[in-house]
Write a structure and sequence with these properties.
352 residues; alpha/beta; 17 helices
Length: 352
């Protein structure tokens, strides 16, 4: 039987391990919180760091998702700010004593509650992963086999052999489950990642679509994506669209997810044209006489370039029918123009 600790040692490919060891530091995400309050003792530093990382990014996240999926508004009374501040002010002796954690909490419960209510083994909310995985073993193995090429960059050869084999009795359920989640994520987003970062590269650089859209998660970028998806409703569902200016294919990804088809080359017929950015709109203006479909112009701009963007958008009305125009403020320094136009057909004088 391969335990969870052993599985973590053998799961990842040597290339990915090397990248993680070179470009990542497990402590880098904790350092900010660990040293924020030098007066804290070691235990309170651990607890404070856990509150700011694991609690917020993991425990509360899964609790919120699970409850809201059933329309439940849950509350955590122990996370009341006054309670948290009070507990962080206490010395370790009030938290660990007589071989017990949460000592002061147990003393408080002992005052008001029957002992059998609080003095019992801890019970979590772990789903029956073992049964689920065993019941769907063949389908899971087929999923791994379908994406074996991409997974070879992520998992080691031995681990991938076990995943594609379909015999999971000896594997820890959580390791198998995490591998499956990663595979499903790669199935949906893998082609948008680009090449794996090279060891020692600048991890903040926009070397792929993953870095520019998903990893940074800038609020303005997220808002842009939402407005783009909404603007696509100017076209009928299932329409084939041609995209200009979609350098990293992110907008094609959004359009595809919204149910639209994407024209792959210039010769393929399309039902609508989408121009993304200043240069794409300029290109469209020069070729407008050849376009006989509705056109969506999606032009983000920095505040320093707002006048230039406004002039560009206003120039469209000189030769085209403006069907709709909207200016949107995405952030303190970022705006967006969304314009729907229909090129006017040239009028020819009748010969005598």
């Amino acid at each position: 039987f391969l335990g969870w600790r052993g599985a973590r040692e053998v799961m990842l490919s040597s290339d990915l391990k090397r990248v993680l060891e070179t470009d990542s530091n497990a402590f880098s995400g904790l350092r900010e919180f660990w040293g924020r309050f030098p007066r804290f003792d070691r235990l309170n530093r651990v607890l404070y760091t856990d509150v700011k990382t694991n609690l917020a990014d993991y425990l509360i996240t899964i609790e919120e998702r699970a409850s809201m999926s059933y329309g439940l508004e849950t509350r955590n009374p122990m996370l009341d700010e006054r309670v948290v501040r009070f507990l962080l002010s206490l010395p370790p002796s009030f938290k660990v004593r007589e071989g017990k954690n949460k000592w002061i909490f147990h003393r408080l419960c002992d005052r008001y509650l029957p002992r059998q209510v609080f003095d019992r083994p801890k019970r979590g909310f772990t789903p029956p992963l073992t049964q689920w995985l065993a019941h769907r073993a063949e389908a899971i193995a087929e999923t791994f086999r379908e994406h074996q090429g991409e997974l070879s960059h992520v998992f080691s050869k031995d681990w991938l052999t076990m995943l594609t084999g379909g015999r999971y009795q000896s594997l820890p359920p959580m390791a198998l489950y995490y591998s499956l989640v990663m595979t499903m994520w790669i199935r949906n987003y893998g082609k948008y990642i680009g090449d794996w970062p090279k060891p020692g590269s600048d991890s903040t650089g926009a070397s792929s679509l993953w870095h520019t859209t998903f990893r940074t998660q800038e609020p303005e970028t997220v808002s842009q994506g939402r407005w783009f998806t909404q603007a696509l409703r100017n076209f009928p569902p299932g329409a084939t669209l041609r995209l200009l200016g979609d350098q990293d294919e992110f907008h094609a990804f959004l359009a595809h997810n919204a149910g639209y088809m994407i024209a792959q080359d210039e010769m393929e017929p399309f039902d609508g044209l989408v121009c993304i950015g200043h240069e794409a709109v300029e290109e469209f203006k020069h070729n407008a006489s050849r376009i006989d479909t509705k056109v969506l112009c999606f032009v983000p701009f920095e505040s320093s370039n707002q006048d230039q963007a406004t002039t560009l958008i206003d120039s469209l009305s000189e030769t085209m029918d403006i069907k709709g125009k909207q200016s949107i403020q995405l952030g303190p320094t970022l705006g967006l123009f969304v314009v729907v136009v229909r090129p006017s057909r040239p009028q020819f004088a009748a010969s005598a």
